[in-house]
Write a structure and sequence with these properties.
Elements: H1 2-12, H2 17-27, H3 36-39, E1 66-73, H4 76-88, E2 93-100, E3 103-113, H5 116-128, E4 134-136
Antiparallel strand pairs: 1-3, 1-4, 2-3
């Protein structure tokens, strides 16, 4: 009975009042207008580009190089042993000897590296070997 009441107007060809209102509302399409292109058509936008400008490098300035200190030893033989191990890992290692108030120290240093990313890669290789290094400038 409910189905008959619902579909009876379609079978007879008459429409109810709600369907006629819906039909007239759907036949009128709203007009959409965009004002943004008209507002900016002949205008000019001022932008501060100073944040994106790069300054030319100073030719008199010394280029920055990075070094990585792998370890520091009192015994030169220990320093050379670590240096040989790092050379076998394809790392440019050298031993730098220096004196301080506590005596003579032999530092195992990697580098020099022109870019910091290369120094970070060497530091990562050291950490993979269980050696905690530090980046020097």
């Amino acid at each position: 009975m409910v189905l008959l009441a619902a579909y009876l107007p379609e079978w007879i060809g008459t429409e109810t009042s709600t369907s006629s209102e819906t039909a007239t509302a759907s036949s009128v399409k709203p007009r959409v207008t965009f004002e943004f292109p008209d507002l900016l058509k002949d205008s000019e936008i001022q932008v501060d580009t100073s944040a994106y400008e790069s300054t030319p490098p100073d030719p008199s300035a010394k280029p920055t190089t990075f070094r990585v200190q792998a370890a520091s030893f009192r015994d030169k033989g220990d320093a050379n042993t670590l240096r040989a191990k790092l050379i076998l890992l394809n790392l440019p290692a050298t031993v730098v000897t220096g004196t301080s108030s506590t005596g003579e120290w032999h530092r195992v240093v990697l580098g020099p590296f022109e870019r910091r990313v290369d120094a970070n890669r060497a530091l990562t290789k050291l950490r993979e070997q269980g050696i905690s290094g530090v980046i020097l400038q």
